[in-house]
């Protein structure tokens, strides 16, 4: 694969996150908040996705990865505002995040790659950056062999099995 897509690409806790969504959905604002929290920008608005060693990678197709187009502000130079370490020239894509309505063909271009998918709805009460950081941390725990959902259900089942049953009075 060697394809340019409309997206924002960031690195969150060493996990490459491809942020997809319609124009105006908040992709760049999410990237800005993630930068403020110490994460990295690979590319804004256009991401060149390419295959390397059977894994999917992304980079800015024009080598302009330090720029971010922020609504109501304009184009900013991330490296000058947040420092050179806030920019990453290329990274493996591990997670695809869709902001807003999920497109039925989201996974189609990435079917040959082991990507995780997440959909978040942007609204006034959502802190998408916190939700994404939590999703990345949970994904990393799963990769290390810990599945919180599985642990929860196992502990819940043990508690149910160990609880005294109520006898009905006749």
**H/E series:** EEEHEEEEEHEEEHH
Which CATH first-tier class would you pick? Alpha Beta
Tally of domains = 1
**Secondary structural class:** alpha+beta
Q: Spatial order of the strands in the main sheet?
A: 4-2-3-10-11
Explain what you see.
A hairpin with a 3-residue loop joins strand 7 and strand 8 (74-77). The termini are far apart. The chain has one domain (2-161): Rossmann fold. The longest helix has 16 residues, at 128-143. 30% of the residues are buried. The protein has helices at residues 27-36, 78-82, 128-143, 148-162; strands at 2-6, 8-12, 15-20, 40-43, 46-52, 55-59, 67-70, 74-77, 90-92, 95-99, 116-120. By secondary structure, the protein is α+β, with helices and mostly antiparallel strands. The protein has four helices and eleven strands; from the N terminus they run βββαβββββαβββαα. The strands form three sheets. Strands 4-2-3-10-11 form a five-stranded mixed β-sheet, with helices on one face. The protein has a four-stranded antiparallel β-sheet with strand order 1-5-6-9, with no helix packed on it. The mean pLDDT is 86. It is globular and about 65 Å long.
